[in-house]
Amino acid sequence: MLSQARILDLTWVLGGPFAGQTLAQLGAEVIKIEPPAGDSSRGVPVYRFDGDSSFFLSVNRGKSSVCIDLKHPQGREAFYDLVRTSDAVIYGFAPDVPARLGLDFDSLRRANPRIGVAQLIGLHDSGEYARAPAYDLIVQALGGVMSITGSTSGEPCRVGYQIADLAGGLYLALAACGVLYQGAREGKGALAQISLLDCQLALLTWQAQNHFISGDIPGRLGSRNPMIAPSEAFLCGDGGYLAISPTGEHFWPRLCEVIGRPDLAADPRFADRGSRVANVEALIAELSGVFQKQSSDHWAALLFQSRVPAGKVLNVAEAVSQPLARLRNMVESVRKPETGNALDFLGNPFKYDRQKPLDYPPALGSATRRVFRDLCGYTPERIDQLVQSQVLYTGEDSDQTQRHQAA
């Protein structure tokens, strides 16, 4: 996959680091470049393991940590030395910051003409939007997704996880793959820019296309699909919910047979896809009464055996402990090198030959000395001088940690 690629990850918090972890999952060598105080997500409360924030742990597996003060001239020169040995850089600074720090595309390609840069921004790169805060909730609001999420009679809802940040991270990883490909194919670097808002608008797909064609404005429908019926979650007898979506015409009569209501398939109100959508309220009323007669586990097992598209609505604990999660290696136990204590992590969604397991997320600056020695040819004396000047941080000296945090 990307085993020959070396990527410098200057992102922080969630979306950008998720991109870096995704690239590591694809096999790239990802070097996380952190400021003297570290990625701010290292301090996010409230859940911690061996002193590490769960927030940081969730998106930084498989990386090495190098700590550089990029505001220091010697720090920038050290970073340029890393750029000369790398293939791509990803960052998520405010639009005016890269040029101010000397990390813009033109500056980086002077150090390495082959370097690719993938940039993540919030809204836009100029004018009044350039410095506007672009937190996940705000981007979800501006991107339209909150207006179509939630119950019909309820208020707009955010998606349950940070879809704006995470989707931006996925697009950023894809952009990094694009600039890597161009660098390898043409021998010269490229710049790709990703906006969190652009990503949310792009994900509107057929909802936006329907609006462009009809002028209609989609609204909130809970779990219901506006174009398919039945396709939503039903309350069952045990208080659990079952999601069903028999989208193909051959699934509808099979569903009716399995739940003991073959009469529904013969009912002219529900005879075809169009009539079921037109009479969805009557249809849902009929099905709701059926599903409340048995538990969600009963219906999920029965419909699975009959190959009718259905699934129990699982909570997070149930989702990560279901047999499929283990079967697909989507939960992995990894030991923290410094303590030997093991912690479960989400696994790699990419499955490919010669795949290597991802390491535990790195301690701040733990790879600084090794990276500059092995990749840039720095002598131990030079590294020591840069550490003493507080240009580099190696994670070896608690006093240095305190000085950096105080600064």
Explain this structure to me?
The protein is elongated, with a radius of gyration of 26 Å. Mean pLDDT is 95; it is low at 401-407. The longest helix is centred in the middle third of the chain and has 24 residues, at 163-186. Strand 1, helix 1 (15-25) and strand 2 form a beta-alpha-beta unit. With 407 residues, it is of the alpha/beta class. The relative contact order is 0.13. The chain has helices at residues 15-25, 54-57, 73-84, 97-101, 105-111, 136-142, 163-186, 196-202, 205-214, 251-258, 262-266, 273-278, 280-291, 296-305, 316-321, 323-327, 368-374, 380-388, 398-406; strands spanning 6-9, 29-34, 48-49, 52-53, 63-68, 88-91, 116-121, 191-195, 232-235, 241-244, 310-312, 331-335, 342-346, 392-393. The protein starts with 5 loop residues before the first strand and ends with a helix. The strands form 4 sheets. A 7-stranded mixed β-sheet has the order 8-7-6-1-2-5-14, with helices on both faces. It has a 3-stranded antiparallel β-sheet with strand order 9-10-11, covered by helices on one side. A two-stranded antiparallel ribbon has the order 3-4. The chain contains 19 helices and 14 strands. Helix 1 packs across helix 7 (163-186). 40% of the residues lie in helices and 14% in strands. The protein has 2 domains: 6-202 and 332-406, Crotonobetainyl-coa:carnitine coa-transferase, domain 1 (Rossmann fold, 3-Layer(aba) Sandwich); 232-313, formyl-coa transferase, domain 3 (2-Layer Sandwich).
